[in-house]
Give the backbone structure.
Amino acid sequence: MKDALRELTRHPQQHISTFLVVIVGAMFGSGLIGSVGLLRKILDPTGEAGGTLLVMLLMTTMTFFAIALFVSSIVVANTFSIVVAGRTHQLALMRLIGAKASALRRGIAAEGLLIGALGSAVGLVLGGIVTWLLALWAEAKNAGTDLESTAFNPWCLAPALLVVLTSWVAAWNGARPVLSVSPLEGTRRSVEPSGRELRRRKPMLGMSIALVVLGAFFLGAGIVSASESPISILSAVFGGLLSFAGIALGSAWVMPPFFGLSGLLVGHGTSGRMAVGNARRYPLRSARISMSLVIGITLVVMFGTVGSTVKSVMGSMADSGVYDEGEVMLMSQMIDNVLLFVYGMVAFAVIIAVIGVANNMRAAIMQRRVELGMLRTVGLSIGQMWRMILGETSQLTISAACLGIPLGVFYGWVGTYCMFGSVDGVQFFGPTPPWGVLIAVVAGCALITGVATAIPARKRAQESPVRALAAV
């Protein structure tokens, strides 16, 4: 623990993104718990509804918190993988003088625990402040009295503690590569694992396949039982989480085919071929960046598909005479309002994913300081360097969209079918893609990755090749 505290004190900048992710997660969770208490007091001031209303509100809000927690765990694990990759030289030197790999891994995991504790404390306070402000606003609108007492609910500690635990476990998982650091690497400059080295990681690939298969089983069970009961949605949600976790764990194997597909579009000219070659040589680094984009794309497209598909189902029911057009229009307006709320909840998970994208892009460019300096030395112009980095960014964005959009449409359709498959008059239906959302998602991802790339790339472009090579 002392070593972890010393490392955080000396180099706090390497964990800024993790700290922000933890703050957002804890604030979101504690704010949701406080908001549940606030809504219950507004909607049921006398308590006549009993615990039914509370259970419904808790199930809804905890679903979104679980999504945010899941996303944050992936981002934190990826961040610590980057930290380990950047410290390979230092870790190898410590191995060379007798340090055990397991002890080094525990030290890195302890950093995650400390960051989780500090960030959760900050997020807990911020969540309480947000709920308190909402309570004051509700009182000003005559929604109730003594509402501010719900702002600091002791149950708000539960999501904060979950965030701490998740950060620690994710850091432990992200620090796993330290076990493969050889003491001999302390004598040379280390880089990200290449494709050849990655193929040796068969246990990780096996676990990824197992999660995807198990998730597919639960998704299939949900689809099959959808005509009998809407409870099948629970099986579908569980299957979706498992299958996506498997895809994220095996991203270094899942993403290369998409890199190859997008490479056909951007791999023209010298700069384009170099951009495609970088993604091919270091699939783990490229997959780590693209998976953060895949998370955000999948979430937004999934809920957009739910909304558009539900509207389509309602329209079909109106045509068949189950509902009249007036009822369908009213339901469509309600769906739009619900989607606004849903997108507000999902925004927190997307923000976490965006932080992961920015951190991964920054770290990837910073780690390539010597490589870029060498390319400048042998004649690569600043314009060509920019085109190469832009080509890599475009390739990652296109690849993430090629995977995230189908996943989002599929998960959204499964969820909708499980909810409505048992309703009288509803036949089997397919997904209705939200085309406007798809266009906005791709444009937003291009903007996010462009900004996240431009800031560190500009610093590297302004640096002289001699200074960059001196970092060897």
